[in-house]
Amino acid sequence: MEEFVREAAALPSAPGEAEHPALALANSAVALPGGHTADLLGTPAQAEQWLARRDLAPADAGLAEVCATQLRSLREQVRSLLASRVAGQPALPAAVRAVNDAMSRVPTASLLLWDEKTGPYRATPHPTTAIVEHALALIATDTADLLTAPDAARLTACASPPCNRFLLKHGRRQWCSTRCGDRARAARAYARRTTTQ
């Protein structure tokens, strides 16, 4: 399994992942050829590394399994919402609730605080114990933004089975990576050869 996780981690980002952490989260569970899958959030250490690479948590956050489970759970709800949007189907109410819950669990307004020596100042509460909740809120907010912004029209699923990643289309490109595009072209060429024989 470790080699499949490395293979998935070596995949380049799908178009749109750099701008949308929601896409990156959705694509962190990767279907690979041969019926294999890789979960880039499979362990707390992997989840921490994934969050740190995206500046959503410090590299030494010390995530526990419960934190990785929360991240994987939100991923499934985000994947459901993206798949609904791509298919033009109504979203599952539970997925909408999960994203709204993640967004509303963390205060976003800077609160007024008072220091005895320096006086009043404003800060957003961000205790170390709430690192994952803040990351989940940012990803959930990005999910809502992605699904309601003009980019939503460009959202699609990779057209190269068995890949299950999402991307934002640029032009005619229907694949999340060159590797998937090559695999799709090879499959089409093979199909043409076998039907003409």
Number of strands: 6
* Rounded mean pLDDT score: 86
Uncertain spans: none
Strand count, sense and closure of the main sheet?
Answer: 2 strands, antiparallel
- Nearest-angstrom radius of gyration? 19 Å
Characterize the overall form: elongated
Question: Total helix count?
Answer: 7
- Helix/strand order, N-terminal first: HHEEHHHEEHEEH
Sheet with the most strands: spatial strand order = 1-2
Structural class assignment = alpha+beta
**How far is the first residue's CA from the last residue's CA?**
38 Å
General description of the model:
The chain is of the alpha+beta class and 197 residues long. It has seven helices and six strands; from the N terminus they run ααββαααββαββα. Helix content is 49%, strand content 12%. The two termini are 38 Å apart. α3 (44-53) packs across α4 and α5 crosses α6 (131-148).
What order do the helices and strands come in, and which of them pair?
Blueprint: H1 2-10, H2 21-26, E1 29-32, E2 36-39, H3 44-53, H4 65-87, H5 93-104, E3 111-115, E4 119-123, H6 131-148, E5 155-157, E6 166-168, H7 178-196
Antiparallel strand pairs: 1-2, 3-4, 5-6
Helix pairs in contact: 3-4, 4-5, 4-6, 5-6
Annotation keywords:
197 residues, two-stranded antiparallel sheet, two-stranded antiparallel ribbon, 7 helices, 49% helix, Znf_CGNR, ABATE_dom_sf, Zinc finger CGNR domain-containing protein
